[in-house]
Amino acid sequence: MKTAVRADALWRPYTQHALADEPLAVSGASGSTLVLEDGRRLFDAVSSWWVTLHGHAHPKIAAAVAEQAGRLEQALFADFTHEPARRLAEGLLEIAPAGLSRVFLSDDGSTAVEAALKMAVGHWAARGERRTMIAALEGAYHGDTFGAMSASARGTFTAPYASMLFDVLRLPLPVDDAAARECRRLLEPQAGRLAALIVEPLVLGAAGMRMYPPRALAELRRVCSELGILFIADEVMTGFGRTGTMFACQAADVSPDILCCSKGITGGFLPLGATLATEEVFSSFLSEDRARTFFHGHSYTGNPIACAAAVASLEVFKTEPVLERIARIGAAHERHLARFAERPEVAQVRRRGTIAAIELAASDAGYLSGLGPRLRRFYIERGVYLRPLGNVVYMIPPYCSTEEELAHAYRVIEESLALLAR
Ligand code: PMP
């Protein structure tokens, strides 16, 4: 007999259903505002898991999606190509760090990372070198599929699967010159076995918006070039202006061998991943021998509607003052953060571009800190959607966010510090 369908049959991501509040029933969104079924309005201070770029329901992207859906909604990308994909590749390479010349499309951030890791290992295999080791940073988060999980930090998210994950050479976060030197010291003896180093450039998102300076990013890149290790930049969160430059690598004048992007790529409208590679990496897979093909792809690879959304989002960068908006958000963060820095409840404040973080001095610091859910409830009751990473309250707002919206969010965060005293 078929089991009756429950009122809420949906199993939500990153949700402990035994403890979670009822989900917020959302019925609409525009700009930086989410509108709930009961009429409440929330300022989306985290861009709906870091994806919404220019604002919800941006009319130009919405129109491009509708138009493309009526024209060509899907095609098998191994044998077909189309204008939205061609224009997207052109647009991405125009704004990407120099040296990248090939664009491989997939579905999301995790698949963009999987493709990158497989490209790196396949690149060496094609050259007859057995290099399968990956290096990654402490605290890293690269996604939830097995390869991406392996490159990610071991911890709460990965514990049940630990024995199934491949080993990674783990490097310290290069927050200062000594740590950067330590990275070099750890990489050197393994150089002949390492396929690639993968990093989240400048900001480690899920780790709690932990940051390191452009100088250190440049040093990591330099070490990889010297040792002949491929350098993968996971710009899934940092891409498309979040850190102040189009890609975080550009603040350090770094050109990776492989770059992953997703999230904001479609302006936040549709899932899409892109893995950019140099000609050198691409050409490793060129052969008269079919067995040397890059055997990777997904049903929806190159989906025309997702590509059209991404092309429209890139257009918005050209037709609207997006870089000014980004600079304005950064300046607003800076002003507001200043008054948090000296508060006894605050351990540290951090900012890079439009990303701001306030790390609270909690006794149970970390992702599972009981503070996170209490704070989230407090913020939602006051009209701000924030989703703290444990004891780290952060903002990564859509670029259309106004001074007033940001000021209100910071006021509410300030009020919430009183919760720490209880
Ligand atoms: N890499 C980074 C740096 C990310 O922040 C994320 C998602 N938070 C991912 C990869 C995985 O992306 P997705 O959730 O789209 O699979």
Secondary structure class reads alpha/beta
Name the ligand types: 4'-deoxy-4'-aminopyridoxal-5'-phosphate
> How far is the first residue's CA from the last residue's CA?
50 Å
Largest sheet: 7 strands, mixed
Q: Spatial order of the strands in the main sheet?
A: 4-12-11-10-7-5-6
Radius of gyration: 22 Å
Helix content: 25-40%
Which SSEs are present, and which pair or pack?
Elements: E1 26-30, E2 33-36, E3 41-44, H1 47-50, H2 59-71, H3 83-95, E4 100-106, H4 109-126, E5 133-137, H5 146-151, E6 168-171, H6 177-187, E7 194-199, E8 203-204, E9 210-211, H7 214-227, E10 230-234, E11 258-261, E12 273-278, H8 279-284, H9 304-319, H10 322-341, E13 346-352, E14 355-360, H11 371-381, E15 384-385, E16 392-395, H12 403-416
Parallel strand pairs: 3-15, 5-6, 5-7, 7-10, 10-11
Antiparallel strand pairs: 1-2, 2-3, 4-12, 8-9, 11-12, 13-14, 14-16
Helix pairs in contact: 2-9, 3-9, 6-7, 10-12
The protein binds 4'-deoxy-4'-aminopyridoxal-5'-phosphate.
Describe this structure in words.
With 422 residues, the protein is of the alpha/beta class. It is 35% helix and 17% strand. The chain contains twelve helices and 16 strands. Strands 4-12-11-10-7-5-6 form a seven-stranded mixed β-sheet, with helices on both faces. Strands 1-2-3-15 form a four-stranded mixed β-sheet. α3 (83-95) crosses α9 (304-319) and α10 (322-341) runs parallel beside α12 (403-416). It is globular, with a radius of gyration of 22 Å. The termini are far apart. The model has no long low-confidence stretch (mean pLDDT 96). The structure holds 4'-deoxy-4'-aminopyridoxal-5'-phosphate. Residues 108-110, 113, 141-143, 200, 205-206, 234, 236-237, 262 line the site of 4'-deoxy-4'-aminopyridoxal-5'-phosphate.
